[in-house]
Amino acid sequence: GFIGYMIQQSFVNELRAAGLSNEVATVVTQVVVSEEDPAFANPTKPIGPFYSEGEARQIMTAKGFVMKEDAGRGWRRVVPSPDPQEILEKNVIATLVKNDVIVVASGGGGIPVVRKQGRIAGVEAVIDKDLAGQRLALDVQADTFVILTDVQQVALNYGQPNQTFISEMTLAEAKRYQPEKHFKAGSMGPKVQAAVRFVETGGKRAIIGSLAQVEAALQGKAGTIITH
Q1: What is the third-level CATH fold of 143-228?
Q2: Theoretical Cys-Cys bridge with 145: which of 55, 78, 137, 222, CB 3.0 to 4.6 Å?
Q3: Which long-range contacts (CB under 8 A, 24 or more apart) does 216-221 make?
Q4: What residues form DSSP beta bridges with 21?
Q5: What pTM value is reported for the model?
Q6: Structural domain boundaries of the chain?
Q7: pLDDT tens digit string along 119-165?
Q8: Residue 25 Rama label (left phi>0; alpha psi -120 to 50; beta)
């Protein structure tokens, strides 16, 4: 909610400074996941503060949390990262968009929930924000899905002497590159995965690029564009 408030306020201030009267709304977003998702048997997403090993073991005993060492920096709680199945507020968001409202939604991947006996219940998990964005784009029938990051384009052999930036990828090429481990998990990996899913399930195109070049990317002049 707090991040949504900040983004919404920034949008409004910039729009008014530009002489535009568009309305902006933040929607608290619930994302349905499956209780049968294998991620629940293998928590991997670190959250919260760092602890010493001794503190972590005390927490595991007292609260039953799963704690793991995080890159040598200390111990943290880890929670599941299940696959997003549906955006509950998709119809509300679609209605707002059709009425020219700029919508801020699925912040941080949204709030994970499961369906139980006709009711909705929250679960302790974190949904990947790129995959949640893809699910939202699909649910509101968007034709273009844009992922903005801190690099200008997707690269093969990133950080290596033979690094090569890519301006365009077909769906087949992207799927071929994925198992070759060009795209790191937790970084570019989920972004490419989300882009592939979007195009694969009916989206017209997905774009991965930098915020500074978003206008050029939408014009097909920047970023990496993934199509059929």
Answers
A1: Carbamate kinase (3.40.1160)
A2: 137
A3: 217/146, 218/144, 218/146
A4: none
A5: 0.90
A6: 143-228
A7: 999 999 999 999 999 999 999 999 999 999 999 999 999 888 999 99
A8: beta
